TrEMBL record:
It comes from Flavobacterium segetis. Residues 4-108 form the Glycosyltransferase 2-like domain. It holds the Pfam family Glycos_transf_2. InterPro entries: Glyco_trans_2-like, Nucleotide-diphossugar_trans. The keyword Transcription regulation does not apply. This is Glycosyltransferase involved in cell wall bisynthesis. Keywords: Membrane, Transferase, Transmembrane, Transmembrane helix.
Amino acid sequence: MLAIIIPYYKLTFFEDTLKSLANQTDQRFNVYIGDDASIENPSNLLEKYIRKFNIVYKRFDSNLGGTSLTKQWERCIDLSRNEEWIMILGDDDVLGENVVESFYENLSEIIKEESNLVRFASQLIDGIGEIFSNVFLHPKLETAKSSYWRKLKRKTRSSLSEYIFKRNIYLQFKFRQYPLAWNSDDMAWLMFSDFKDIYTINSTVVLVRQTHLSISGKKDNLKEKNTSQLMFLKDLMNSRIIKLTKKERIELLYETEVSLKRKQKLTLVEWLQLAYEYIYIFSAIAILKFIRRFLIQLVR
């Protein structure tokens, strides 16, 4: 059975999310909604859908997402029973009508491949539900490391809502806490895969919303995003599970540096954090190139 977990906070697009669940061609799922002490009470809206699919709703007494979004995800998962598979669906994202059906149609092959992670194709939508991206497709079977590399190089995208993962692997690793939970999902997929391939279903799409209300769409949180990315980088470098070669470490460092600079000019602290990682790897050529890039920024 599949548990669909919704960490709820904003009412604005929530009905679109619920409607997409009511329209699923396969209703073999349970929905668990954890209300993060929101000022926007969804009770009246939930009354419209309470008989259309199985809903468990819990309003928490305190807001947790403001300080730790990953802890909010985890306490919402704790509402669920013993379903083997879990999806965390954003309260503004939308499932294609045959997402659940496609999951069950592919389940025997997913089990055969021993995959802990299932991923769907995705598209981006705006505040009025209009699609503004191509469909992001993926290899049917792909290592989590390869998937993250493609994302880092801006060849694809990835977020929380288009994944389904096994409960037992989640309980083993949980979510790593970063500011805004930025990169927390990336680390989860790297850990949850547990050296097995991600299994992709490209025949249906999860619509992921990007607006000025979403973390990914906001522009006033770049400092927190950069801090998160550097924390993630350090964890990735030091991970005993995600083993990187020296060449991969240098490439990861460079791509991270490029990604950070794309958002805003790096601070001295951020340069020093990157410098520490380059020195730790100890590649003379990579260090010299890094120093050159740093000096170029200084004189600009």
